[in-house]
Amino acid sequence: MERAIEQSLRLLSQLATSPLVERMGWADSVEKLVTRGTRVGLRAASEVAKQAAPLVKLLTPVRMQPDGLEAPDLFDLTPSDSQALVRDTMARFAREQMRAAALKADEACAPPAGFLEACHELGLSQLAVPEALGGAAEARSPVTNALIAEELGRGDMGLALAALAPLAVVHALVEWGTAQQQAAYLPRFVGDAFMPAALAWLEPRPLFDPERPATRASLRGGDFVISGEKSLVPLALAAEVLLVVADLGGKPQAFLIDRGTAGVSIEAAPAMGLRAAQLGRVKLDQVRIPRGNKLGGEAGIDTERLLDLSRIAWGALAVGQAAAVIDYVKTYALERVAFGEPIAHRQSVAFMIADMAIELDAMRLMVYRAASRAEHGLTIRREASLARVQCAEKGMLIGTSGVQLLGGHGFIKEHPVELWYRHLRGVGVFEGALLV
User: Fold this and answer.
1) Measuring CA to CA, which residue among 84, 3, 64, 79 is closest to residue 372?
2) CA 113/CA 235 separation, integer angstroms
3) What percent of the chain has pLDDT over 90?
4) pLDDT tens digit sequence for 317-354
5) Which of 201, 419, 233 shows the shortest CA–CA distance to 301?
6) I need a labelling partner for 12 at 20 to 30 A (CA). Which of 92, 216, 281, 316 fits?
7) CA distances from 276 to 21, 89, 268, 271 (A)
8) Within 156-209, where are the H helices?
């Protein structure tokens, strides 16, 4: 099914890039056709998978093999045909839907009406859930997920965080969930409506160490009881499911907590940036959940890898947003005239933009390298940590330089660079919330 859809979409993509389309003035119509074709294809694959998979009778959890079981002989960053199609679709969506809505969403501290539903129509959840569980994915591909995060981040990091937050829960369930957990939760993510969910890891205290959470879980009478507080949780006010990381016997583990569980209280907590993701604070006061809600069952999960996959995802978002800054300042520098010529003709300006582009390439390469190792099942602790440091520091540098290059225009909301600058400051702050 997936191969047939891929072949059809490849033909549409080739049509979209044909010189004849441009000459005849059909570009806009064909772009819409390609985007709609991708959405329809993903929905069709999902419907076929749903009919073929008896979700409620899972005896063993469904695991997807990595997309690349054998490392290639040559280092090649060229995306596959399916990756290119997904990337191009996300780029169109970011350009057409996200850019125009970003500023108002930031002011409202929430995604605009219909935005999350439009994201659901893109088939993001279907791309993450295996066919046997109602989705359209044949293999686990952190590289594809990084490409998606990068393109959506290029539209707006705040809205991208809102769109991708539920996928952190999906990826964790696919990677580590028990058969019962997968059967209970994953069908809700591939239904007709957007399913808000979030991974809650950060805590509101200084020197927070993600591998030593202050939130505690303990066994009492056959159930887990969890107490603590989580901050900067995306979609907190709307989330139907929270995946909460808590200390259990000196080791962090993740627990599935349904909306409305006694002892859970949530309040809005907008931050400096990423406000469109509807950030909130979650308080857990003696929250009692069934023993079966510990992700991975009795064995638990590898939270180190969970953290590493999160850091790669944040790096990919930063790459996309930093690329948007560079695109914008290049155009601005060519159009802004001072002393009779574009400011891009000044060496100080040109060199600063060149330095930004160099740092962006380094960020992208480090993220792709870490994602590629994850795809081949290799250890990623070092690579994910390096990508995090590079993207946090250099992403912030690119944001700062973008504001500086616009001068006074960088300080006002008529230009989006001040918004993107605020988003990029969050890369060094956030842990969790996203996964590739």
Assistant:
1) 79
2) 14
3) 75
4) 999 999 999 999 999 999 999 999 999 999 999 999 99
5) 201
6) 316
7) 36, 22, 12, 10
8) 157-176, 179-189
